[in-house]
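step=predict obj=Prefoldin subunit 4 n=123
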Amino acid sequence: HDDVHISFEDQQRINRFAKHNARMDDLKVELDMKKNDLKCVEEALEEIELFDEEEDIPFLIGEVFLSHKLGKTQELLAETKNQTLKEIASIEAKAKVIKGEMDELKAHLYQRFGSNISLESDD
């Protein structure tokens, strides 16, 4: 096979692609964690539906449990849910931007190197 010359610009693109790829992996992990948090909050909201209005419900804030009545606890959980949904949307937006850049880099690099380069991740 013939040797392919890699210019400095091409090397920069390859490095940028690799950096974006690593960032996407981090975002996937972060997204999974947030989606898990969301699931927990939604389950908690369902669970406390059955509680008595006058019962104190412990609510973990940071590393401290605070007790509140049902209505206040539902309010806090709803706020937590909304915040988590915003965080998920933010992560997804970042991932979309990075994916767009990766697609551009990928198109350029495949056009330049064809089958001599492999940019696909193993997942």
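step=describe
The radius of gyration is 23 Å.
step=end
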